Amino acid sequence: MRRCIGDTAYRRENSLIRDAAKPLTPLRDAKVLLETLRRLESARGGRAAGACVRALDRLLQQERRGSRQLRPKELKAAAKALRAVKRRMAEVSDSRLTQASLGAGLRRTYKSGRKAFARVQRNATDERLHEWRKQAKYFANQIEIALPFVPKLVAKSGSGKRFMRRGWGKR
């Protein structure tokens, strides 16, 4: 969307989305950690793994009770900001939405992910694995966001065969 809405608007919207997500970070992190621990427990299948997961689960529960709780006011403000961003993105005119702009963003993110993966292959550090995971997540999110625009682009240009051939227009 950066090419469609301009760099200034893109940065503004990106900041609003980032700020809306901040209050959710501790909950997301705890949820991901618990899910990971439970998958490890299932994979290991042993009592030792189960005891470890239960001990860590207790620690996480204690930390959650001691940490700042989400306030309804914060959640409402975040939801309002996200709805406003969604509404503004839906209002982007068809004339500004092009295959070139959509494709450029997807190519840029895909390339970043490939570079991050190459760095992991050379030397798999925690930081590099984390960066690769983030880039893969960004790309997946962009594809999910871009898919609804594909029919508009196909109808507008009449040349959506490239999108369909690559499987981007399938759900």
Describe the structure.
This protein is mainly alpha-helical. It contains nine helices and no strands. It has helices at residues 2-5, 7-21, 25-44, 47-66, 72-90, 99-122, 126-146, 150-157, 161-165. The longest helix is centred in the middle third of the chain and has 24 residues, at 99-122.
What are its keywords?
171 residues, 80% helix, 0% strand
List the helices and strands and how they pair.
Elements: H1 2-5, H2 7-21, H3 25-44, H4 47-66, H5 72-90, H6 99-122, H7 126-146, H8 150-157, H9 161-165
The helix count comes to 9
Number of β-strand runs:
0
Beta strand %: under 5%
Q: Note the gap between the termini.
A: 21 Å
Q: What string gives the helices and strands in order?
A: HHHHHHHHH
Radius of gyration: 21 Å
Helix content bin: over 70%
Question: Which spans of ≥5 residues are poorly predicted at pLDDT below 50?
Answer: none
Content-based structural category: mainly alpha
Describe the main β-sheet briefly.
Answer: none
Query: Globular, elongated, flat, extended or rod-shaped: what is the shape?
Result: globular
Average pLDDT value?
Answer: 78
